Amino acid sequence: MIRFKDFHPVLLTVYFISVAAIGAVLRHPLIQLASFSGALSYLLISGAAKPRLFVSSAVFFVILAGVNPLFSHNGVTVLFFVNGGAYTLEALLFGADAAVMIISVFFRLQSFSKIMTSEKILAVTSKLSPGLSVIISSAIRSIPLFVRRSDRIRAVQTANGMFRDENLIDRIRGGLSVFSATVGSAVEQALNTADSMDSRGWGCGRRRTSYSRFRFLPADTAALISVAAAAAAITAGAAAGCCRYSFYPSLSPIRPGICGTAVIVLYFILSFLPVLTDASGRIRWRFTCGAAKKAG
User: Fold this and answer.
1) DSSP letter (8 states) at residue 245
2) What is the DSSP string of 158-177?
3) Looking at the structure, do residues 103 and 231 belong to the same domain, yes or no?
4) Residue ranges making up the domain that contains 116
């Protein structure tokens, strides 16, 4: 069964960058609807969704949509007045549109971080720069090490009576002491690692090589060409003015026309590509298993 996360990391990176960038640039309501619904759908089926994420997103939406008319008084449809300033419908909808755009991009990043493991990230960066991949891998490795070292230092200082959390001042002082000791230990380890790499001849060769277990398959090539062609077509349509929409001074009518409709439909397909890929893979898998059982 082919799942979207099983594609080549280069394809995954190109897809997420393309769909997130288009959703962030094009501010048409139907584009934002496609971006949000596609991001939310794949977030749910990828297993990266958490209740706290939805609660924080809902709070962020309410705050941004509600606060924007307090600072921007543009628009002709006045709902009421706040301290002499007009609270307009256009500013409220503009804030809601901006909130949906930001939440959609954040959902994409959540899905991206779920399916793009450190190995996949290194597979992408190693082709561009092996040195950069080493830096990224070291940074990824250092984060959990830093947390575990901080916990050990905190435990040692607590056992020795150095760390106290009786009140806020003691907690701040203890936290600064733990942070200082952890940073000092991390810097010492970084220097030792650099000396060890230098003694083993790191950087002496003219060209560094990299290893990756990921290989471009025909399905990866076809999917990459399709994603690049769809993104290029959407960009060309947007540059031609097919998806223009304005909130100020009054709301533009949602009549995209033939060109705009084509761009919006194409972006809907691009936004739901991960969901469609996983769904088609499950359908083929069930059909194949059912046919095999009948044949057996």
Assistant:
1) -
2) HHTT----SSHHHHHHHHHH
3) yes
4) 4-120+216-295
